Amino acid sequence: MPKIKIPPVLRPSVGGEREVDATGDSVREVLRGLVAAHPATESQLFGEDGELNRYVNVYLGDEDVRVLDGLDTAVGATDTIVILPAMAGG
Amino acid sequence: MLQNRPCGGRYGDIIQSIGNTPIVECKKLSPKPGVRLWAKLESHNPTGSVKDRVARSLIEDAEEKGAIAPGQTILEPTSGNTGISLGMICKLKGYPLKVVMPDNVTPERTQLLSMWGAEIVYSEGSKGSNGAVEMALELAAADSRYYMPYQYGNEANPLAHYNGTALEILEELDQDVSAFVAGLGTGGTLMGNGRRLKEVLGDTVKIVAAEPMQGEPVQGLRSLDDGFIPPIIDLSLLDRKIFVTNSDAIVWTRRLLGEEGIFAGVSSGAIARVAARIAGELDEGNVVFVVADDGWRYLSSGVYTRPLDEIENLESTLWW
Question: How much is the pTM?
């Protein structure tokens, strides 16, 4: 079963959990599953157009899915999805 | 026109000597004999970081456009290196400098900035560089006497690489580059080098970003909407974007030191880690990675000498 690692800013919306179990074969399905289980996450993760919020980075393992197949990126049973806020350097 | 002179060149002043940094092969870190791993030593720039190129480009661009007046105060958000580079250049050119910097960077950054005469305003460390940008924008909006180059949104940043770093790499490796790996901070290094390399080599070259996985204490955002993506970043230019934890970055920074003799900052360890992974996926070719800064500004943190579990504030420090 895939897992999702939840960043501190999102934990209040998932009952304080750092990691939750997930279902789904794609990043889209996994995140929609998270929203179904924890509706408070929807407005933080997704924009009104149904696309990923601009300031949310989602990783399959350690790779940003936006540079892979986006929300259609395939997720395997043992994969971990990591959600992180966009933080700049410089 | 580049000239490979054995003495390293002759320059009119220290600002002109910025760039033309060496590439050094990392034979021990390469996972495969047919794949050559090359470190582009941006630590060899005058103030010890790649940002010397960016700072020069930002200021010269502003001067060419008539955007700054003699003696005008420059204001800029920075996690340290850009501020330090601006410090040197502004000192020589006579511009007072004010920087906004997170308060959780290593103390050497404060010392180096003070050495160059910069005024420092600290932003909340828990908000990382996002917080510094937010505060600097507020200060600039409130006082029109400042000129803010704004490295996060100024094309002069990536242009420093498009017209400098990338050309050096192509020249030195006879246009034979399979992958280019750099840190994703403002996006300037990846966008500028990426654009030039893709123009010359097409999709045969892969542009790979290594980014910091900021420790939880540094993710002090109220909501995900407090996130920040530098306007100069165009993700479509990247082929891969991979995060590296602070622990892994430090382990690989030590590997650079111990196995290749390269004394580099923490982001360089992260970048080297990703570069070695990319090299492992190839059968042959040249993989170039950027050593963004030297290790002097991290000495007090103990990353080169203490056991990993004894490094203080590992997750609450803004390492890059």
Answer: 0.94
Q: pLDDT digits over B224-267, tens only?
A: 777 788 999 999 999 999 999 999 999 999 999 999 999 999 99
Whole-number Å distance between alpha carbons of B303 and B180: 26
Q: What pLDDT was estimated at residue B5?
A: 59
Closest Cα in chain A, distance from residue B4 (Å): 30
Q: Do A44 and B151 touch (CB under 8 A)?
A: no
pLDDT recorded at residue B4 = 58
Where do we find the tokens 């004010």?
B98
Residue A82: C-alpha distances to residues A57, B67, B120, B210, B291 (Å): 8, 42, 35, 16, 27
Q: Does A80 touch chain B (CB under 8 A)?
A: no
Chain A to chain B Cβ contacts (< 8 Å): 101
**DSSP per-residue codes, B14-48:** TTTT-----EEE-TTT-SSTTEEEEEEEGGGSTTS
Number of domains in chain A: 1
Give one DSSP letter per residue of A35-46, joined into a string: HHH-GGGHHHHB
Task: Residue B152: list chain A partners with CB under 8 A.
Answer: 88, 90
Nearest CA in chain A to B267: A89
Instruction: Please give the Cα distance from A83 to B128 (Å, whole number).
Output: 17
Q: How far apart are CA B39 and CA B41, in angstroms?
A: 6
Q: Report CB contact under 8 Å: B152, A67.
A: no
| Residue (of B88, B32, B28) closest to B58 by Cα position | B88
Q: What is Dmax (Cα atoms) for chain A?
A: 37
Architecture of domain B51-142: 3-Layer(aba) Sandwich (3.40)
H-type helices in chain B, by residue range? 51-64, 81-93, 107-115, 128-142, 156-160, 166-172, 188-201, 246-260, 266-280
Comparing CB atoms, the residue among A85, A86, A90 nearest residue B185 is A90
Choose the closest CB to A63 out of B184, B235, B242. B242
> Which two three-digit tokens encode residue A59?
């990783």
Q: Could you tell me if residue A73 is inside a domain?
A: yes
Say whether B206 sits in a helix, a strand or coil. Answer: strand
B267 belongs to the catalytic site: yes
Structural domain span for residue A29: 3-85
